[in-house]
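for the writeup, i need someone to sanity check this before i put it in the appendix. the sequnce is what the collaborator sent (i think, or maybe the updated version? ugh). structure was predicted straight from it, no edits. if anything looks off just tell me and ill rerun, i have time this weekend
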Amino acid sequence: MENRSKYEQNLQSDDPFIRNMYEDLEKRIQVYENNGNDKSEHAQWKDAAGVIIVMSMITLFLAATLI
């Protein structure tokens, strides 16, 4: 019994439609892996500042009403 994954089996399929779909997928994955790493953006403190302020105000309000 062969230990090939379903992905590898479909890449080597006798059906040209299936094989072409998986070859296209393989090309798209390679392009994404080569180009996608440079364009990633990370969250900054300024992105979360508004949410942190609102949460702090709600927390202070609830703490003040419970005391």
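The chain is about 70% helix and 0% strand. The radius of gyration is 25 Å.
thx in advance!!
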